[in-house]
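Sample log: Branched-chain amino acid ABC transporter substrate-binding protein.
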Amino acid sequence: MTLMNRRQAGRTLALSLLQATALATLSHAQTGAAAGGGPIRLALIESLSGSFANTGEAVFRNIAWAVERVNARGGVRLAQGGARNLMLSRYDSKGQNEEALSALRAAIDDGARIVLQGNSSATAAALLDAINKHNQREPGRQVLYLNYSAVDPALTNERCSFWHFRFDAHADMRMTALMDVVREDGQLQSVYLIGQDYSFGQAVLREARRQLGVLRPDVAIAGEELHAVGRIKDFAPYAVKIKASGAQAVITGNWGNDLTLLVKAAREVGYDGMFYTFYGNALGAPAALGEAGVGKVVAVADWLPNLPTEGSRQFYEAFRQRFPSPQDDYVHMRMQLLVEALAQALERAGSLQAADVARALEGVRVSLYGQSGWMRAEDHQFQQELVVGVMDRLGAPGVAFDVEGSGYGFRVLRRIAPEQAQMPTSCRMQRP
């Protein structure tokens, strides 16, 4: 495939959201921003086809909405060159690391100097290595990498990089929040650990074992299993083993269809235990479980729609107004904070040079609809509140909003303040 064909295949502009709204129907202020020197290119590299296409599209909606908000207020104001719009372009990794690396090369050739990715820590590690090498090799075309979901702890510990910033809590932080609920479950005697067989899934199971040993040594691990990522179409054999083990609960970091199909299979074989999850609050999981999931599915997130604050309600209603279709109902506060942090850093830096923007991102503090966080300069790990919720029926106390029109939402059980959620790091940051 020629370079030109590869670019055309990898690049799909945001037709429905950005071309149609942010470009074709710019307000006078936005037109002025674009005229100030052309848009600032952001490259989203995600699975936009294949098994995890729904997760990539969910990310795109979130980032695009955040970009629209920045552009609607006049874009980013630089010290030289006036105001500039943000422009988001899509690059399909097809769930493959090699495709992601090809997309990275195409994005850089297209002029993007800010790359966003998150769905898959394996892809994140591959992109991070490539960006580190590229930035050393080509100082005139250095790239910044913003990560919203790849939560392998190593990425801000032993593999930390000056060019990489993570806006999600890493797996150990999320597990600690879940364990705050697990340790108080006095009826729990045994658990089953299951996850995707790559760096993230392995990290989740490893930390689950460690924390159970410290916090609940009385709880037995009835089974432990890793499975191929995105390749299992029928989780019934796994569900049968879980049920046969006698485990009263499952702990899993599975995401996307690997989670939805797992919980669906568990329901179909009659497993009635608890599910302690990282991502059980959306992308089809509540609908797959239905009534069987009420009081049985626990999820940890940076934010949940039923967080009992007025700002949270306004934020969620604004998203649903922008994306009214139930199938599009998957909003992430952290992705909104990421774009706000980037806009702030660009203005502070007054420059589009990746190193300048990276320095401005270190220590940045942002707030939106009452939710806030800050970027720890030591390791480039964002610090924010974590929330743990349990699945319940729409209309139950604390469940004003459901998920994806399923009739089920998540009632907040715990709110963990940023100061409580943060963890030490082993990062030894090398700065240029």
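Observation: Residues 36 and 81 are 6 Å apart (CA to CA).
Observation: Residues 3-169+316-383 form a domain with the Rossmann fold fold (CATH 3.40.50.2300).
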